[in-house]
Amino acid sequence: MTGKPAPYPVKLENVWFNARTKPLIKDISATFADEEGLTVILGPNGAGKSLLLRLCHGILPAHEGLVTWGGGDDPGLHDHRQAMVFQRPVHLRRTAGGNIDFALKLHKMPRLQRAQRIDEALELTGLSRYRAIPARLLSFGEQQRLALARAWALAPDLLLLDEPTANLDPAAQRLIEEVLLKMIAGGTRVLMSSHDLNQARRLASHVVFLYRGRIKEQSSAEQFFAGPKNDLAQSFLRGDLLWWRRRAVFAPDPDKEDDKF
Amino acid sequence: MNDIWQAMATAVNLLAGLDASLVEIVARSLGVSLTAVVLATLIGLPLGAVLALSRFPGRRVILVIMNALMGLPPVVVGLIVLLMLSRSGPMGALGLLFTPAAMIIAQTILVLPIIVALSSTVIESLWQEYEEQMMSLGAGPWARVLALLWDGRFALMTTVLAGFGRANAEVGAVMIVGGNIDHVTRVMTTAIALEASRGDLALALGLGIVLLLLSLAINAASYSVREFARHRYQA
Ligand SMILES: Nc1ncnc2c1ncn2[C@@H]1O[C@H](COP(=O)(O)OP(=O)(O)OP(=O)(O)O)[C@@H](O)[C@H]1O
Ligand SMILES: [Mg+2]
Prior knowledge:
- The structure holds two protein chains of two kinds.
- Chain A is α/β, with parallel strands linked by helices.
- Chain A has helices at residues 49-57, 96-106, 111-124, 140-153, 170-185, 197-203, 221-226, 231-238, 246-249, 257-260, and strands at 10-19, 22-32, 38-42, 64-69, 82-85, 158-162, 189-193, 206-211, 214-220.
- Chain A has a single domain, classed as Rossmann fold (3-Layer(aba) Sandwich).
- In chain A, a hairpin with a 2-residue loop joins strand 8 and strand 9.
- Chain A is globular.
- Chain A starts with 9 loop residues before the first strand and ends with a helix.
- Chain B has one domain (2-233): MetI-like (MetI-like fold, Orthogonal Bundle).
- Chain B has helices at 2-16, 20-53, 59-69, 74-85, 100-137, 141-151, 153-169, 172-178, 188-198, 201-233.
- Chain B is globular.
- At the A-B interface, strand 5 and helix 2 of A face helix 5, helix 6 and helix 10 of B.
- The complex binds adenosine-5'-triphosphate (ATP) and magnesium ion.
- Magnesium ion (MG) binds at residues 49-50, 87, 162 of chain A.
C-alpha cells in the first residue's frame, strides 16, 4: 500500500442525503481523518451515524454536495485502501476463513500469503477455532469480530467502523480495542461510530457529535470530554439526551428546520 | 377389474425385466429432457443474472413476462415450434421437424422462462443482501456475479430441477414437433398417450410408473438440496 495517495483526509462539502424528500444528512461540511488516530462519531439512535459512515466510505452517493478522499487525488473506494465494518455484519455463505479469503483474493494476494494472513486475522480476533465453520452459523458477536478480522486482513489506510463492539462481551471488547490500538499505532486512521462513552474516552483522539443529521460539535477528544460547547452534546455526555424529548428539555432551537423532522 | 390387475402385473414384469422397448423410450426421454434443461440453463442463468443485477428500461416488463411464461401451455409452444420448423417456416430448411432435435428445441423454450424467472429471483435477493459488502470490498462485476452464482448454487440447483420436472412431464410440445414416431421420437409421455388410447395398458402403466418415480426423485433431490443448504449455511 505504498506509492498511491492515501484515502484520507475525507472531505465533505455541503453534503445532503435524503430519503425521498426527507433530509437525513443535512448540509454537512467537515474534514475527517486529516490527522492520525481515531475519530469517534457520537450521537443518539437515528442521528445519521451509519449514513455518514457510508457516505465517507463512498458506497452511498450524496444527493447534493461532494465527498473527496486524499485531497481529491484519491478516486474513492475503488483502490480498496479503505475497509468498513458494518453495524450488521454481512458474510458470504462460506466458512469464516473463506470469507476473509474472498476479500484477500479481490486484493490479488497470492495463495500462500493469504493462508497466513487468514490465520493471523482469526488469531487476533480470537476466532481461530472457527476457521472452517460457515460464517453465518457464528453468533452475532462472533460475526462482528469476523467482519473486523476481514477488515484487518486488508490492511486498510482508512478504516470505518459502525459500532463494532456493540454486541461484544467485555473480554471480546477488550480484545477488539487492542486490535484497533495496534492498527492505529501502525498508521491506520479510523472513523468509528459508537454509543459507548467510556470506549470513546479510551480510544478517540477526535470527536464528532451528530444530531438529527447535523454535526453539532467537532473537536479533539480532550476538549470534548472536558466539556462540549453544544448544549445537546453536554446533555448527551450526561446521558439524558433523548431524541423525542429535545423540545421539552431545551429552549427551541433557532434552527427550526431540525425540529420538523 | 381383472384387466387392470393383469396389465399391472405385465407392467411390473416389463420393468423388472428391463424390457428393451421400455428402456429405449425411457432413455430417449431422459436424453431429450436433460439436453433441453442443460441448454435452457446455459441460456437462462446468464439471462437471469443480467435481469437481477442490471437496471435498464423494460427490465420489469421482461421479468413479468418471464413469470407469466412459466405457465406456458406446452401445446402452444409445440405449435409455434412446428410453424418455425415446418418446411415453409423460417427454419424449415434445417429439416429438423419430427426429429429429437425439434423436441429439444421445444422443451428448451418451455423450460427457459422457469430458469430465467426463478434464478433472477434467487440472484436478486442474494444481491440485496451482499450489495454493500461487495461494494465495500471493491468487487468488480465478474467477481460479484461469480460469488452470487456460487453462493446461490443450492437455490439455483432447485431451479434447474424445477425445469427438469417440467420438461419431463409435458406431452403437448413433444407430441406436436416430434410426431411420436416409433424408435425415433417416441418418449415416455407420448408413448403413454398412444398406448392408452390403443388399449396397450401394460406398457403405458410401466412407463407411467417410471415417470412417477422420476418425478418423485426430482422432488426428493430438490428437497435434500434445500435442507443441506439450510443446515450448512443458514441459506
Ligand atoms: N433508506 C432510508 N429511508 C428512510 N429513512 C432512512 C433510510 N436510511 C436511514 N433512514 C433514517 O435515517 C436516520 C438515520 O439513520 P442511521 O442508520 O444513520 O442512524 P444511526 O445514527 O446509525 O442510528 P443507530 O445508533 O441506531 O445505529 C434514521 O432515523 C433512519 O430511520
Ligand atoms: Mg447506525
